[in-house]
Amino acid sequence: MLKSYLPILVFAFLGLTVASVFAIVNHLVGPKKPKTATAASRRQGEPYESGIPVEAMKGFKFGVSFYLVAMLFILFDIEVVFLYPVGVILKGADSVFVLGEMITFIALLMIGFLYVWRKGALDWK
């Protein structure tokens, strides 16, 4: 019985060991917090990208349309991922039924996409 749990225990032990080693090395080698905050240390702690200092805008909110488009993208992206295994099966199946199911799936996906498009969910306002 212990033999069946051995790979899980070995994997857990290796994971904990690697995580512990990384944490210890990070503590020893990583940057230390200065005892007194200077102007230079405050600047070093700020985010910086593409040569332009980033200024956080307080009160900035994404619109609802941003989240709606993001959710629709995830939804349609996940549905399209299901087409890959069907394509692999279709290559070796030699079946008209599998092809019909794939065409039905794509047609339903297109109907959903056209519905969302006609409702204006993809328009930025």
The helix content, as a percent range, equals: 55-70%
* Rounded Rg: 26 Å
Order of strands, main sheet, comes to 1-2
Please state the average pLDDT score: 80
- Distance separating the two termini: 61 Å
The gist of it:
The chain has 125 residues and is mostly helical. Helices cover 70% and strands 3% of the residues. The chain folds into two domains: 2-53; 64-119.
Descriptive notes:
This protein is mainly alpha-helical and 125 residues long. It has 2 domains: 2-53; 64-119. Helix content is 70%, strand content 3%. It has 5 helices and 2 strands. It has a two-stranded antiparallel sheet with strand order 1-2. A hairpin with a 2-residue loop joins strand 1 and strand 2 (52-53). The longest helix has 28 residues, at 2-29. The chain is flat. The protein starts with a helix and ends in a 6-residue tail after the last helix. The relative contact order is 0.06. The model has no long low-confidence stretch (mean pLDDT 80).
Question: In terms of topology, how is this protein built?
Answer:
Layout: H1 2-29, H2 39-44, E1 48-49, E2 52-53, H3 64-81, H4 83-93, H5 96-119
